[in-house]
Structure formats: structure tokens, C-alpha cells
């Protein structure tokens, strides 16, 4: 059988190096311009790109068809080629930039356009924020809750680089080769991040422009040492191998660093020399653990761990509170913007002396504890037992005595408020999972009749749906504040303030 090129095997990932350049990368023939019929895979056509899409793509119209292109820039004209047809849109790749956008910028990261993250690096940061603000306004307008209120400008980062305090890199025995790397690249070992749309190969990342700065040299040392010591990486296809993940955490306020080496088995004879060599090369590492994960799960979460250096934890400060972070602890990945988010939530809550605050989906208590103050009472509700335990520890560590954390389903907890001895809330903070609130949660939530609900969301679509239900239940949306916690990506946090409509006399 004749060998096939990468373009034949996976055309949607071929020649990602064309990214934002004006250099043609394909001689594919142009068919209809614009499209006048239902497109087929491989059709090529000229396309003007109009706007960013919350799904992480750039949208243009060809005739009556909506076309989504990944790793492109609004305001540019490209020659695009169909790679996939969906019911509601066409997915395409840019073969050639015919006319660059005036808002295009040179990506800082050498892996931009191939790596699965930072899809908007080639687009001016200020313009990214304008597009995100538009997403929020459109979603709320469609839900008919944006009445007599405007979406505030997105709260931006002063420096939108090197903001992530945690990075999860993957070991793999199948390396993705970038278009500009040439032919003689060893593909048997990789340590890095997944390529967009590709889960069986890993991009061998040499640097990351959004990771904390100390992460890159540790990453490259770990790769070098693992190869020198012949430690076998995980085989994503056969599901065998020793090395699974390299997780790096950074205490931004304390400058402490945790290294979590995730493996399939704790082979001390092979792993301890690696750990000691990495520690010798990087004395800035505060603590290091070897975590064991079982089965074929893709997650870096492990069932057991062994501390090989330090105490196994690092410390962080956030909004005046102190936190102890282990390898498995949940914590916001952007410390600087998380603090600014908390400030906006605190302003929205406007908690007064003697009032009761409910924190729904409280997790480890970070948000609620930052909002609580003397003379008020905090009740946090969370279904995950380990998170509730961590929340109680965090309260004790910070001397917060007016906080109570309740384990259990939020739906049940809210329904039982009157049956127990819990006081009714004056203000409610809701920070649900990405999918938003379960429909059964909203009736008992609005029935509590709190004067204000502050809804924090990372998904404007599910938030808009839930806000509409709350407005039907007697609330009015009074403020919308987006916050950019994840620059150069399609992810966005929003703080929505809802006030109870006073009953008519």
C-alpha cells in the first residue's frame, strides 16, 4: 500500500503553519465563489471573515451558508476549504490569507495555530474583548433579559500573558509534527499539549506564553531527563506506559512551585533518580510528588501519591485569604483576575451587617469566604464531600467563624430551608457548573425571596437561559460585568446582578 501524506490522512490539521500568514499553503482548486449549493468536503472558495464565535472559531458568510474557520482573524479575507459539514454550519480551514486583517498581530507563541489552546492569539487583545462583550449582549438580548441595562466593558488583564498558575502537560509516545519542523523528527516521544481536534498525538511544547514563566524551563528539563533515563511515555492508543502527566502549580503571591509527576505505577527505582535530577536542576521547586493514576482515564487526577520533596503542598493568597494547595486541590488558574472577579462580586453582593449570604455550588469555599465579613453569616452548599471538607478547613485556617458549609444536593437543601433551622438568605451567590442550573433548582431558589441574586457563570448561553427563568420568577437583571480570566481563548466569566422586583402595593 502506498503511504499517504498527512494532508490525505487528516486534511483539517494539515499545514497549520499558514495560520495568520499570507503565504499560500495549498493549490486546491476554487469551486463556487460564493457557495451557491450545499458544499462538499474539499470545496475551496474565497471567504470574508466577520466575527469571533464563542466556540473558538471565526465566522464568515458564503452565500446563505455560515462558515466557521479556526485559527483565523476577523477582518481578513481567506481562501477556505471545507473540512466538515454540520447541520447548522460549515467548518473550514484557511488555505491562504488573501487580505490580512488590520487587527491581526504576530502570535507570541511559536505553537500558535497548532496547539489546542489560545485560538485568538493572532487577534488584537482589545478587539478580542470587544467581541466577547458582543457575545454576552447578543445572548442576553435573545433571552429577553437585557432590559434597561448595558453590558459593561470586559474587565481585561493589564498583561494578558503568563497568567496561568497551573499547567497540565501530557506525555505521549506519538508526537505531532508541525508543518515547519521538517522530515527527520523523532516522533516517539512528546511532552506537551494536545493539538486541536487530535487526541492520539501530543504537540511537543517547547514554551507556553500563558503558563507562569518558571514552567517552561522545568518542562524542558523534565523532557530531557525522561528521554536520557529511557522512561517510557504513555501510549495513547495501546494504553500502556509509565509517564502520564507533568502538572506544575505556582503560588503567585508566595512564589512556591509544586511538581506533580503522574504515572501508572510508582516504580521508585526508575522514578526517584528522575525526581532527584529534576530537583537538582531546579532548586526553585518547593515540593514534588509522584501521583499514581489507575486505568485509562485521560485526567491527571490520581488515586494515591508519594511525596519525594517538601511537604506536598504549596500556599497561595487570594483576596486577603490564605490557601493551602495540594496536587489535587481546585483553585482558579488565574490568580490576578480571580481577585478582580471577587472584587466585582463583592461590590454586587453589597452585604450589610446582620445579613445572611447563601453561596450555592460553593466548591472549596473560596468565593463565599472572600465575601463573608464580621456581623454577617455565610452558608455554603456543595454536593462534593471533599470540597466541603476543604471549605471547612479553609474557613478555619482564615479564622472565619461565621461560615457553615452544608454537604448535599442544592435542590434538596433549598427545599428544606424552612424545615430546618437555617435562616433565609438576604443575598444569594450562585456559581454553577458550565451547564448552568438544573431546572428544578430555580423554583425553590426564587421562592427564598432574597433581595439580590448574584450569578457567576463561565457559560453565557446557559446563564442567559437561567436568568430568563429567574426574571420570570420575579427578578430583574440590573448589571452585567464580564471578566476575562482566560485571555486569547473563547472562555469568559460573567457576573450578573439580579434584584428582586418589589411587590406592588
Kindly summarize this structure in a few lines.
This protein is α/β, with parallel strands linked by helices and about 500 residues long. It has helices at about 5-10, 125-140, 215-230, 270-280, 335-350, 365-370, 385-395, 410-415, 440-445, 460-470; strands at about 45-50, 60, 65-70, 75-85, 90-100, 165-170, 175, 190-195, 200-205, 245-250, 255-265, 285-290, 305-310, 315-320, 320-325, 355-360, 375-380, 405, 425-430, 450-455, 475-485, 495-500. The chain has three domains: about 5-105, OB fold (Dihydrolipoamide Acetyltransferase, E2P); about 130-160 and about 335-500, 3-Layer(aba) Sandwich (Rossmann fold); about 165-325, Beta Barrel (OB fold (Dihydrolipoamide Acetyltransferase, E2P)).
The first-to-last residue Cα distance is 83 Å
| CATH-defined fold name of the largest domain | Rossmann fold
**Overall strand count:** 22
In order across it, which strands form the biggest sheet? 7-9-8-6-10-11-12-13
Q: State the low-pLDDT regions, or none.
A: 1-29
Main sheet: strands, sense, barrel: 8 strands, mixed
Write down the overall geometry: globular
Percent of residues in β-strands: 25-35%
Describe it for me?
There is one protein chain. It contains ten helices and 22 strands. With 505 residues, the protein is of the alpha/beta class. The protein folds into three domains: 6-104, OB fold (Dihydrolipoamide Acetyltransferase, E2P), CATH 2.40.50.140; 128-159 and 335-500, Rossmann fold; 166-325, Beta Barrel (OB fold (Dihydrolipoamide Acetyltransferase, E2P)). It has an eight-stranded mixed β-sheet, covered by helices on one side. Strands 18-17-16-19-20-22-21 form a seven-stranded mixed β-sheet, sandwiched between helices. The termini are far apart.
Amino acid at each position: 500500500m502506498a503511504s499517504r501524506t498527512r494532508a490525505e490522512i487528516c486534511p483539517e490539521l494539515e499545514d497549520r503553519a499558514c495560520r495568520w500568514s499570507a503565504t499560500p499553503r495549498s493549490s486546491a482548486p476554487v469551486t463556487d465563489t460564493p457557495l451557491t449549493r450545499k458544499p462538499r468536503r474539499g470545496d475551496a472558495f474565497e471567504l470574508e471573515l466577520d466575527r469571533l464565535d464563542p466556540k473558538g472559531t471565526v465566522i464568515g458568510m458564503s452565500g446563505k451558508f455560515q462558515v466557521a474557520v479556526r485559527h483565523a482573524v476577523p477582518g481578513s479575507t481567506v481562501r477556505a476549504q471545507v473540512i466538515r459539514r454540520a447541520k447548522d454550519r460549515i467548518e473550514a480551514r484557511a488555505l491562504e490569507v488573501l487580505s490580512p486583517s488590520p487587527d491581526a498581530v504576530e502570535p507570541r507563541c511559536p505553537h500558535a495555530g497548532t496547539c489546542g489552546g489560545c485560538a485568538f492569539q493572532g487577534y488584537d487583545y482589545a478587539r478580542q474583548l470587544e467581541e466577547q462583550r458582543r457575545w454576552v449582549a447578543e445572548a442576553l438580548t435573545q433571552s429577553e433579559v437585557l432590559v434597561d441595562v448595558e453590558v459593561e466593558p470586559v474587565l481585561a488583564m493589564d498583561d494578558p500573558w503568563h497568567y496561568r498558575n497551573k499547567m497540565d502537560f501530557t506525555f505521549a509516545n506519538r508526537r505531532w509534527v508541525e508543518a515547519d519542523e521538517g522530515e527527520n523528527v523523532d516522533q516517539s516521544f512528546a511532552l506537551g499539549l494536545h493539538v486541536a481536534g487530535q487526541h492520539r498525538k501530543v504537540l511537543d511544547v517547547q514554551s507556553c506564553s500563558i503558563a507562569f514563566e518558571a514552567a517552561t524551563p522545568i518542562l524542558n528539563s523534565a523532557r530531557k531527563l525522561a528521554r536520557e533515563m529511557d522512561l517510557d511515555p504513555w501510549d495513547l492508543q495501546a494504553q500502556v506506559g509509565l509517564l502520564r502527566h507533568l502538572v506544575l502549580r505556582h503560588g503567585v503571591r508566595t512564589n512556591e512551585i509544586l511538581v506533580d509527576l503522574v504515572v501508572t505505577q510508582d516504580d521508585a527505582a526508575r522514578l526517584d533518580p528522575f525526581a532527584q535530577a529534576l530537583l537538582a536542576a531546579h532548586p526553585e521547586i518547593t515540593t514534588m510528588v509522584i501521583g499514581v493514576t489507575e486505568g485509562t482515564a485521560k485526567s491527571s487526577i490520581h488515586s494515591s501519591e508519594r511525596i519525594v520533596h517538601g511537604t506536598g503542598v504549596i500556599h497561595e493568597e487570594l483576596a486577603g485569604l490564605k490557601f493551602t494547595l495540594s496536587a489535587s486541590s481546585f483553585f482558579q488558574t488565574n490568580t490576578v483576575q480571580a481577585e478582580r472577579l471577587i472584587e466585582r462580586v463583592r461590590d454586587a453582593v453589597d452585604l450589610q451587617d446582620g445579613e445572611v449570604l447563601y453561596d450555592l455550588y460553593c466548591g472549596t469555599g473560596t468565593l463565599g469566604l472572600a465575601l463573608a465579613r464580621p456581623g454577617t453569616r455565610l452558608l455554603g452548599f456543595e454536593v462534593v464531600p471533599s470540597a466541603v471538607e476543604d471549605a471547612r478547613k479553609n474557613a478555619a485556617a482564615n479564622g472565619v467563624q461565621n461560615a457553615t458549609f452544608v454537604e448535599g444536593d442544592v435542590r434538596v437543601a433549598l427545599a428544606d430551608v424552612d424545615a430546618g433551622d437555617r435562616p433565609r438568605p438576604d443575598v444569594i451567590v450562585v456559581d454553577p457548573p458550565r451547564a448552568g442550573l438544573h431546572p428544578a433548582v430555580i423554583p425553590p431558589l426564587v421562592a427564598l425571596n432574597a433581595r439580590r441574586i448574584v450569578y457567576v457563570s463561565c457559560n453565557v448561553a446557559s446563564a442567559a437561559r437561567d436568568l430568563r427563568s429567574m426574571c420570570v420568577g420575579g427578578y430583574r437583571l440590573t448589571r452585567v460585568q464580564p471578566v476575562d480570566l482566560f485571555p486569547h481563548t473563547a472562555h469568559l466569566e460573567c457576573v450578573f446582578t439580579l434584584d428582586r422586583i418589589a411587590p406592588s402595593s
